[in-house]
């Protein structure tokens, strides 16, 4: 491979963009219209040059080769995917869990463990928020138990979530008592980092899951809750419906699906009813 000029910003030709965008849509369901080309260039430019490539055609030939698929393709997908999240994002969802769902679940099912999946967990703010909600509930209901799985297509953000390290600004809106309960401050005061305490980090299991796969390796009708928020917006309507049907197969009758504020099941032929905005229930 040649050493590419590190100061040169490489532009992607239309043929390379079409090849890459069609692959990403086919394999991962993510839509990449033409106006996303500058975003792809900015995210991939450093990777292309680090591999010593002189242009995107050369880069694509490599990542789609046997060697490139093995060594680099997953890293490229990590760079392409968007990961934006916050602790207690869309707080009405967590208020509903605390105030309505969890008390009713305990009354209806007693000692049965609550099974939850955070699909598209990004860097971990969502699954750790769920963990805090469950642990706070457990303080008053010590017999309550849960299992919490988090997944993403990006190995990079799964690792970040597993590590549970955040800048202190990221937890600014979390109540002080919860900060003390769930986070440790870095021993180095000047780095302004916090980390989820290890006794809580171990309560989440992680898997890399591509929502475009035919099956997710989850037993049918085994989950009580799926959070998949602000993920479907990157899929076209037919792909969204396919994913929702696979989610429905994973949910127990009466189980819940939480979507993002701009997502809806309107017009889909699926076995779910809307309970409240962006909260759907699998039919009994």
Structure description:
- This protein has 284 residues and is an alpha/beta fold.
- Helix content is 42%, strand content 18%.
- It contains 11 helices and 10 strands.
- The protein has a 7-stranded mixed sheet.
- The longest helix has 19 residues.
- The radius of gyration is 21 Å and the shape is globular.
- The N and C termini lie far apart (59 Å).
- The model has no long low-confidence stretch (mean pLDDT 89).
What's the SSE blueprint?
Elements: H1 14-28, H2 37-50, H3 56-63, H4 66-71, H5 73-80, H6 91-109, E1 114-119, H7 125-140, E2 146-152, H8 155-163, E3 165-167, H9 176-182, E4 183-185, E5 193-196, H10 198-201, E6 204-208, E7 223-227, H11 237-250, E8 251-258, E9 272-276, E10 279-282
Parallel strand pairs: 1-2, 1-7, 2-6, 7-8
Antiparallel strand pairs: 3-5, 4-5, 8-10, 9-10
Structural class: alpha/beta
| Largest sheet geometry | 7 strands, mixed
Average pLDDT = 89
Note the gap between the termini: 59 Å
How many β strands by DSSP? 10
Estimated share of beta-strand residues: 15-25%
Indicate the radius of gyration in whole angstroms.
21 Å
Name some characteristics of this structure.
single chain, 284 residues, alpha/beta, seven-stranded mixed β-sheet, 11 helices, 42% helix, globular
Short description:
With 284 residues, this protein is α/β, with parallel strands linked by helices.
């Amino acid at each position: 491979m040649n050493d590419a000029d590190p100061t040169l910003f490489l532009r992607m030709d239309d043929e390379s963009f079409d090849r890459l965008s069609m692959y990403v849509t086919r394999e991962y369901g993510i839509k990449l219209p033409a106006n996303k080309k500058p975003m792809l260039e900015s995210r991939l430019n450093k990777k292309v040059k680090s591999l010593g490539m002189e242009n995107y055609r050369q880069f694509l030939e490599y990542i789609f080769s046997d060697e490139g698929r093995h060594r680099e393709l997953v890293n490229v997908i990590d760079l392409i995917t968007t990961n934006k999240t916050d602790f207690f994002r869309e707080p009405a969802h967590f208020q509903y869990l605390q105030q309505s769902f969890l008390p009713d679940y305990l009354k209806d099912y007693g000692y049965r463990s609550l099974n939850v999946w955070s699909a598209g967990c990004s860097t971990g703010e969502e699954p750790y928020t769920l963990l805090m909600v469950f642990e706070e509930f457990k303080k008053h209901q010590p017999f309550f138990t849960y299992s919490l799985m988090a997944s993403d297509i990006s190995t990079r953000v799964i690792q970040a979530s597993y590590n549970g390290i955040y800048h202190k600004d990221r937890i600014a809106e979390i109540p002080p008592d919860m900060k003390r309960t769930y986070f440790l401050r870095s021993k180095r005061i000047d780095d302004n980092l916090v980390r989820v305490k290890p006794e809580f980090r171990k309560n989440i299991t992680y898997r890399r899951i591509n929502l475009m796969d035919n099956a997710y390796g989850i037993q049918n009708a085994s989950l009580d809750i799926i959070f998949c928020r602000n993920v479907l917006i990157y899929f076209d309507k037919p792909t969204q419906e396919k994913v929702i049907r696979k989610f429905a197969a994973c949910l127990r009758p009466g189980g819940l699906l939480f979507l993002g504020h701009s997502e809806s099941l309107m017009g889909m032929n699926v076995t779910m009813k809307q309970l409240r905005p962006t909260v759907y229930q699998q039919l009994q």
